[in-house]
Predict the structure.
Amino acid sequence: MGTRIKKDDEVVVIAGKDKGTRGRVVRVFHEEGRVVVEGVNVVTRHSKPTPKNPTGGIVKREAPIALSNVMPWDEKAQKGSRVRAGQNGDKKVRVLVKSGTTL
């Protein structure tokens, strides 16, 4: 079936310092089992001046979090939901367990 969470999915964080935060998946790292979520796990990086960034300074950006710490957001149920495989004709689809909605 592939992955249960994909880019542009709306997810909710279920563990860690950002627990309860909702956001959109920006990037998925399948090999590492990690995802980057918009506005979640924001870290501060101090960068030296470079030709590309002549001023340098402090840069805030999202860092990857474990895939197991996020859950797809079910708009109908207004909470996180597990995902199961479903069929839509001949095509495989992702279905939210709580409401039966297709992703």
